[in-house]
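To the structural biology subgroup,

Please find below the input and predicted structure for N(6)-L-threonylcarbamoyladenine synthase, which we are adding to the shared reference set this quarter. The sequence is reproduced verbatim from the submission form. If anyone notices a discrepancy with their own records, reply to this email rather than editing the shared folder directly, so we keep one authoritative version.
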Amino acid sequence: SANKLKNIVPLLDRVLVQRIKPQQKTAAGIYIPEKAQEALNEGVIVAVGKGALTKEGKHIPLQVAVGDKILLPPYGGTPVKVLQEEYLLFRDSEILAKVVDMVIAIGFEGSANKLGVGIIRHENGQVDILANVRDTFITPPGEGFSPRDTAVHHRECVLRVTREALKDANLTPKDIDVICYTKGPGMGAPLVSVAIVARTLSLLWDKPLVGVNHCVGHIEMGREVTKADNPVVLYVSGGNTQVIAYSQQCYRIFGETLDIAIGNCLDRFARLLNLSNAPSPGYNIEQYAKRGKNFIQLPYSVKGMDVSFSGILSHIEKLAKEDLPTGKVTAEDLCYSLQETLFAMLVEITERAMAHVESDQVLLVGGVGCNIRLQEMMEQMASQRNGTVCATDERFCIDNGIMIAHAGLLAYKTGFVTPLEESTITQRFRTDEVHIAWRED
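Predicted structure (tokenized):
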């Protein structure tokens, strides 16, 4: 053990390292290729000396610790045997400057009707998505999803989805370093179901726990996938509509909905039209809108940097009930008009935010961010400002576990963990309440 080895390590700057042998699995469950052994190996520090002496006779502390994984060059190190085990004894601490930064997280998302489990690895600045499995609770056409029924769905499928994620990643629970879960915002009962699973696995697997803000998960996953530098973020989903920009380790909300979210507005109108909920109501609204030809004037409600959708929804619901049966309007024209009006409002407040923070990038996140027409309208605005739009596909726009794992891992690497007694949920967990300790730009 490391304790037994410490007493035989000379003082000064010596470090004892156990080499990970060829074809032996690392802590991440990955085999090291034989060719890599010739040039670069991985080792684990099992004992550390006090550090080199300065001219004043003081020890320089080494920037490594017992248990750290390090990369070993093909030279240096004196082979020694301790307790019948082979080790390398290093005198020069400079070769240990590059500590292997490899952490694996599993993330659980269940704030609405999608139960997602994702596994991600951060290694030396590189992000690898190992698994991203999702199961969606689909209700019959014309019906929404209740919190209670959604929670039952999550509880029934979470173990299967977790097994699938571990299988896709080719990992076992012992390979996981941290468990992340959605703390909020979202629907209470589904959030609680997922939090209980994360809490239970944290105890069973003896792993630390990290509660993640759902909105921050979307933003950080979007930034990682698109490589957006410091964009204005338009976060649009079934439960949220916000225009966000980063400043001083906080995501500041510049504007938001004053009532219902844009995704909720689209979903409710889809239910009125009795559209299918598979794969999602918003997707089917988008398909109907593509066939629309006649634009119908609807209320346009932008109030400063905020927007309001409930009045528009009430107006178009009235039109649908009165004019659809007579053939005066078509469902396609109504969907087209609704999309154009809502998206124009979002483009307006996003452009004002870009002007205020002097940004030339827009990042679209959230389920509604998958909408092609929204991306087109935002691109037209951004191009006029010599800017660009960054968007992702349905793998990352729609709620998923990988975004929770990624954001949780970013927080975990700054030293943040959620104590078991604080592993609760918060339905109204605002984006600007989170300390973004991993960003300094």
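Summary notes: The chain has twelve helices and 17 strands. Residues 331-357 form the longest helix (27 residues).

Regards,
Lab coordination
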